[in-house]
Design a protein that fits this description.
Keywords: Antiviral defense, ATP-binding, Magnesium, Metal-binding, Nucleotide metabolism, Nucleotide-binding, Nucleotidyltransferase, Transferase. The chain is an alpha+beta fold. It is built from 17 helices and 20 strands. The chain is elongated. The two termini are about 45 Å apart.
């Protein structure tokens, strides 16, 4: 395991707390869905004589929900409405429509926007000030049937009694009276997830009860108990969100991250310990069955959370790339005692302002330095913090220096020197970058080009990785074309004996 400095350990722990949502958000969400349950149970309801068991699923249930990336985003609360009904008396469509009918009346009663019906659930949007919406999934218990189906295939029966049947408008028998409904098991998954962190959870809950002088640990609500596993998942989800902010369609799903992280968690007592342990081994829990990548749903071994990877192999590549980036980001950050440097290292994938907030308690000086840097560079700082800028691929051991200069050429004009973050060069021109270093051969040279802006994004050419250049004879240069309007950077790295011996710092090129 990577050796982590004491400063990095404190900072990562504080980062997890900064990502967590306030307790009142959990309480507000709880009140909201319980209010809906009361409405469904009123005498006039179509479900007045039906037993209703409603519960949350997803990140709110697992305790891994995080603050939105910006203040305008909403929280997504997933609620399962499990009705004690029979498939003999209701089709999927009838159950779905009955829930929709009641939710429309509820929305009208409380002057809310009418709910939206989707393939599997209904969505209730609360007022903007509440900043969340509720997805309600109609379902009925299905433990006995699912047990039979698993027994026929000699599959594990763990958590099978919690199984449910759900509605899906795309199901071929959606409007038929039949036992053949889609299945799910959110309660079983939540129980499995809790089992994976039970030791740490109980220890922390007891400690909180003692600290707050509570007579019974049950007096401490479960949502207030945050284990290292939950905190590590929150950090990884934020890293994922920022990393894929420019290409959200390819981002790894939360259920995949949560499942692999829970498998990899070994009851570490600290957030940092859990985070580094999970990063080191989470991919070892991806199985290959035949030619298929398989991440089984722990509460239903027939379901493969990675089923999309077969039809879209680029999703597996995106996961591998994200995991590699996360490992490098936290490894580099964990090696330093300098909090300001940690902020710089993690900003591209976690967001500078979030990191500054997390660092406030530990080092106001580091925060002041980061804020000053952000104000000094203004919009250019966002270019330096571009999420697709890959972390340095080699351990850094400074042995010398390297500097960059640039010349712009275009047809009919004399070559012109280009200053770092200087006047904009015209689109279509050619740029020659030359590096000079005081390091002695032999060494390798690498270039990192980072494009930004809508044009580069539309062209799927944001880049951000490392390209090996020619280093023989001491001629260190690279030719690039000025193709996309905006601000872009190029940086030169000198690698000697497997270590980053020198780096030029980003050279900013503005194109118009």
């Amino acid at each position: 395991m990577t050796k982590v400095t004491s400063s990095a350990d404190r900072f990562i722990n504080q980062l997890a707390s900064t990502l967590d949502i306030p307790d009142e958000r959990y309480a507000s969400a709880d009140r909201s869905y319980r209010s809906i349950c009361d409405w469904l149970e009123r005498p006039e309801s179509r479900f007045s004589r039906v037993y209703i068991n409603a519960y949350t699923q997803g990140s709110f249930r697992l305790g891994t929900v995080i603050r939105p990336l910006n203040g305008e985003e909403h929280y997504d609360l997933d609620v399962v409405c499990e009705f004690g009904a029979s498939k003999v008396s209701r089709t999927q469509k009838q159950l779905f429509d009955d829930l929709g009918h009641e939710l429309k009346l509820y929305a009208a009663r409380y002057s809310m926007e009418s709910p939206s019906g989707w393939d599997r659930c209904w969505t209730l949007n609360y007022a903007d000030a509440a900043q969340f919406h509720i997805d309600l999934l109609p379902s009925i218990p299905d433990g006995q049937r699912q047990r039979t189906l698993r027994e026929e295939r000699n599959l594990s029966l763990e958590y099978v009694e919690k199984s449910i049947s759900i509605t899906d408008r795309n199901h071929p028998k959606y409007q038929q009276y039949t036992d053949d409904w889609p299945s799910s098991n959110p309660n079983g998954y939540a129980d499995w997830f809790m089992d994976r962190m039970e030791v740490a959870f109980n220890k922390r809950r007891r400690a909180m009860a003692l600290y707050e002088a509570k007579a019974d640990v049950a007096d401490i609500p479960a949502f207030r108990v945050k284990t290292p596993l939950q905190s590590a998942i929150q950090i990884l989800k934020r890293h994922r969100d920022v990393c894929f902010s420019e290409r959200p369609d390819g981002r790894p799903s939360s259920i995949i991250i949560s499942t692999l992280a829970a498998h990899a968690y070994q009851q570490e007592a600290t957030v940092t310990g859990a985070l580094f342990s999970i990063l080191a081994s989470m991919d070892q829990h991806i199985k290959i069955i035949g030619q298929t990548y398989w991440i089984a749903n722990p509460s239903d071994p027939r379901e493969n959370f990675a089923d999309a990877w077969e039809a879209e192999p680029e999703r597996k590549l995106a996961f591998d790339d994200w995991l590699d980036t996360a490992r490098k980001d936290f490894e580099r950050a964990g090696e330093t005692e300098d909090l300001a440097q940690m902020i710089d290292l993690l900003s591209p994938r976690l967001g500078r302002e979030l990191l500054e907030k997390a660092a406030t308690q530990h080092s106001p000086a580091a925060v002041a330095k980061s804020v000053a840097t952000r104000r000094l560079y203004g919009a250019i700082q966002r270019v330096f913090d571009a999420p697709h800028r890959k972390p340095v691929a080699w351990p850094t051991v400074p042995q010398g220096s390297v500097s960059l200069s640039s010349v712009m050429s275009r047809a009919g004009f004399r070559p012109t020197a280009v200053a770092n973050n200087g006047a904009a060069v015209p689109i279509g021109s050619s740029l020659r970058f030359e590096a000079k270093t005081n390091l002695v051969w032999p060494y390798k040279v690498f270039w990192q080009v980072v494009n930004t802006g809508p044009a580069a994004m539309r062209a799927n050419n944001l880049r951000g990785g490392f390209l090996e250049g020619t280093a023989s004879g001491g001629n260190l240069f690279r030719i690039e074309g000025a193709y996309y309007k905006g601000s872009h950077t190029i940086e030169c790295f000198i690698v000697k004996d497997g270590y980053c011996a020198a780096r030029s710092g980003p050279f900013v090129v503005n194109i118009d």
